[in-house]
Design a protein that fits this description.
The structure holds 2 protein chains of 2 kinds.
Chain A: H1 2-7, H2 9-15, E1 21-22, H3 31-54, H4 56-67, H5 69-101, H6 104-119, H7 142-145
Helix pairs in contact in A: 3-4, 4-5
Chain B: H1 12-26, H2 30-52, H3 55-71, H4 82-100, E1 113-114, H5 120-129, H6 137-150, H7 153-164, H8 169-176, H9 180-197
Helix pairs in contact in B: 1-2, 2-3, 2-4, 3-4, 4-8, 7-9, 8-9
The chains are: A mainly alpha, B mainly alpha.
Chain lengths: ~170, ~200
């Protein structure tokens, strides 16, 4: 192979021509800073990449807004209207609640219960409670609507029924 | 780029500093990595450029190689020098790129500062050793690049690393992940091929 190598001298001389090919002047001045910028971009892009892989639907959803900017305005308007509607509704329901507490019936219910609680002696006078309410204050809260087996003061609740799968007689 | 750089150029203190830079870069110190990039950017760029014969591609690939090396720095065990490890990344990236670019050869040498006209050795080479004495350096350069692009990627890589960059057989074997015998045989075959392609530009034996 040594003889062959000797024959390649001309070729090797010719290949030295390649060493004269250099990039534009000043090219390497900014090269490393471009690499560092690329690393920073890749770091930032890594979070986006993870989002793409874990929630592609979100990426597609956001992509819709990029293609149709009008949708962004529509969605923003809808959200604002929804917010305003929610605020108005909340104000309205607050006033309804206040009205409910200020009725005579509720005042009649709360008064004896409060006095019994203060005195702590004997059974409270539940006569004042409206009969159709079954001895329990009217409430839309499903928790308070449950019928307890006994009242707070040991009296049996007439509305309490034991659950049974036996056929009714 | 005027002189080929080899791994043996690095002195002992510089090697210690390199390991220190690598350790700091591995811990996220970008300024340390910036120093490593500055140290090897010209050699990495030159190797990729001689493989692709295109400045834009070489620029993109060299940057990608450095960025990939940074992200893979945690996996660098120190079994070889950082330089060899970095070179291996650049070489693999370039070969993969060239496989994808197959049959899409495009040369963009006009944007390079081709200053061989001022090199007396090369001028002498053209005027005395080539039968085509009227061939200009730029024409010869074009033919040379075309001939190199006809070689397969591994053969071209060996020629570039050895005859252009001046790397030793051992270093090339380590970079390319093959044994020295393979490097030698590839080099011999590649030179034979090139000699055939460029016969009209060389003095007959």
């Amino acid at each position: 192979m040594k003889e062959s190598e000797h024959n390649f001298e001309d070729l090797k001389q010719l290949l030295k021509l390649k060493r004269c090919e250099i990039p534009p002047p000043g090219y390497f001045n900014n090269f490393s800073s471009q690499v560092i910028s690329g690393i920073r971009e890749e770091r930032a892009g890594g979070a986006v990449g993870r989002l793409n892989s874990e929630a592609p639907w979100l990426t597609r959803f956001l992509g819709i807004f990029e293609t149709r900017p009008g949708l962004v305005g529509g969605l923003a308007t809808s959200l604002v209207l929804l917010l305003v509607f929610g605020v108005v509704l909340a104000d309205h329901s607050d006033s309804d609640t206040q009205n409910m507490f200020s009725t005579d019936a509720s005042a009649q219910v709360s008064a004896p219960l409060a006095s019994a609680a203060i005195s702590g002696v004997g059974t409270p006078d539940l006569a004042g409670v409206s009969a159709d309410s079954g001895g329990i204050a009217i409430s839309t809260n499903p928790v308070t609507s449950l019928q307890p087996a006994a009242s707070l003061f040991g009296q049996a609740n007439p509305l309490f029924q034991t659950a049974s799968f036996a056929p009714a007689h | 780029m005027s002189e080929p750089a080899t791994m043996s150029d690095a002195s002992e203190p510089a090697e210690v500093l390199e390991s220190d830079l690598v350790r700091r870069a591995r811990n996220g110190d970008l300024s340390a990595y910036d120093e490593l990039v500055r140290r090897y950017q010209e050699r990495i760029y030159a190797t990729i450029y001689h493989m692709t014969a295109n400045h834009e591609d070489a620029n993109d690939l060299a940057q990608d190689a450095f960025i990939k090396a940074y992200s893979a720095l945690k996996s660098f065990k120190g079994g070889s020098t950082f330089y060899t490890w970095l070179y291996r990344i650049a070489v693999n990236k370039t070969i993969n790129f060239l496989k994808q670019r197959k049959n899409k050869h495009h040369l963009s040498l006009n944007d390079l500062d081709f200053n061989a006209e001022n090199d007396p050795d090369l001028v002498a080479l053209i005027s005395h050793k080539t039968p085509h004495r009227d061939a200009s350096l730029s024409e010869l350069q074009k033919k040379l690049n075309e001939a190199l692009l006809k070689l397969s990627e591994p053969h071209r890589m060996v020629v570039v690393l050895h005859d252009v960059q001046g790397q030793s057989h051992d270093e090339i074997a380590e970079i390319m992940g093959c044994n020295i015998g393979t490097v030698r045989s590839r080099l011999f075959y590649a030179r034979q091929q090139l000699q055939g392609y460029l016969a009209e530009y060389m003095k007959p034996a």
